[in-house]
Specification:
single chain; alpha/beta; Rossmann fold; 14-stranded mixed beta sheet; 19 strands
Length: 366
């Protein structure tokens, strides 16, 4: 058994147990919320032909999605396992065109009555999963049917996973043949990772980027209530990379007053402003947050403030999925390469607002 496979098995078992613990009525409610979130996706409205699935066990219920697609005149196709591959077939009505008791007790199209659809004809694929992560990795039941089928879609077609929040983790093990999804829709979030890279040529350019980031986060915070908690920004990079310099700009962009210094020995500094800023430095905690420190920072993370964490890689297990993560590298001529990553679709505007800047290069998305 390969290392990746051995890592996946316990994750798969845990995710199934978590999903199965949801009562049927709660799964139905959460599935309705997932359908509502799907409506925020442009491809969902523009796709003419959508690949869906017939839900089994405790998967996200899809009958309401199917009715909605049919109601607006869209074309539906469902997967059928033939040998070791998935084959898609177009159907008119899931209630009459799907045969119960397929190869894995999954209702499947009857090939005698349904037209075969080539992968290139599919505009959007909505797929099930046992577990997902915030970067689009997916675990199925272990047969890799979708991992073989989805790469055959057109380059402009998107593949989205439908799952409950209890199925989502920060990162899943990934093998060479695993297909990474465009994103994942749950009852409480739409995960669609995006990344921007900026090159800053001097200290001022780094501070300016921080200012733009602070202003953009301030706009996001304006729409939050105190009960929504705060906003987490994680910074990584070696000593001298410019993490504290970036925080100085971020504080200015938020309108905070007072000098910004690295809290290496105090662990945390607080700065007052229209949006308060908590500046955390974990350099002196190589083993991450433990014991009383962990309890303290869990409280800080839930406060209605912007919390910036230097050396965030030391506490990623405690950082919420909606954190904005920045990695600062040192390139040629001491220029800084600053990579900003978000994982929620509604945070893409943060990357857009960073712009290119006087000393920056255009952002790139992955």
């Amino acid at each position: 058994m390969s290392t990746v496979s051995s890592q996946k098995d316990p994750i798969r078992q845990t995710a199934i147990r978590r999903r199965d613990r949801l009562s049927p009525s709660l799964r139905r409610i959460k599935s309705q919320s997932i359908r509502q979130s799907l409506r925020s996706l442009t491809p969902y409205h523009h796709a003419d032909r959508i690949l869906l699935y017939a839900s089994i066990r405790s998967e996200v219920v899809t009958d309401g999605i199917a009715e909605e697609i049919r109601g607006r005149g869209g074309s539906l196709c469902y997967p059928r396992v033939e040998g070791s591959e998935i084959v898609a077939y177009e159907i008119q009505d899931p209630r009459t065109d799907l045969c119960p008791g397929g190869r894995f007790n999954v209702p499947e199209p009857d090939p005698r009555n349904c037209r075969r659809v080539e992968p290139e004809e599919v505009d959007l694929a909505l797929v099930p999963g046992v577990a997902f992560d915030i970067s689009g990795r997916r675990l199925g039941y272990g047969k890799a049917f979708y991992d073989r089928f989805l790469p055959r879609l057109r380059p402009d077609a998107e593949a989205w996973g439908l799952g409950y929040e209890v199925q989502v983790s920060r990162i899943l093990p990934e093998g060479p043949g695993d297909f990474r999804l465009t994103g994942v829709v749950t009852e409480s979030a739409v995960y669609q990772p995006a990344k921007a890279t900026h090159i800053t040529e001097d200290e001022k350019a780094t501070v300016d980027l921080g200012i733009r980031l602070g202003r953009s986060i301030g706009e996001q915070m304006a729409g939050r209530t105190e009960r929504s908690g705060g906003f987490i920004v994680g910074l990584s990079g070696r000593l001298g990379a410019g993490k504290t310099r970036l925080v100085r700009g971020l504080a200015e962009g938020l309108g905070c007053s007072g000098p910004v210094r690295s809290p290496t020995f105090t662990l945390m500094n607080e700065h007052c402003g229209p949006v308060p800023l908590c500046h955390v430095d974990l350099y002196r905690l190589p083993d991450g947050l433990r014991g009383e420190d962990a309890l303290l920072f869990d409280e800080v993370f839930g406060s209605p403030a912007v919390v910036v964490i230097e050396w965030v890689e030391r506490c990623l297990d405690r950082v919420p999925f909606d954190a904005v993560l920045l990695r600062i590298g040192i390139g040629k001529d001491e220029r800084r390469e600053i990579e900003t990553t978000v994982h929620l679709r509604n945070q893409h505007s943060i990357l857009d607002n960073l712009g290119t800047g006087k000393s920056g290069f255009p952002l790139s998305r992955e």
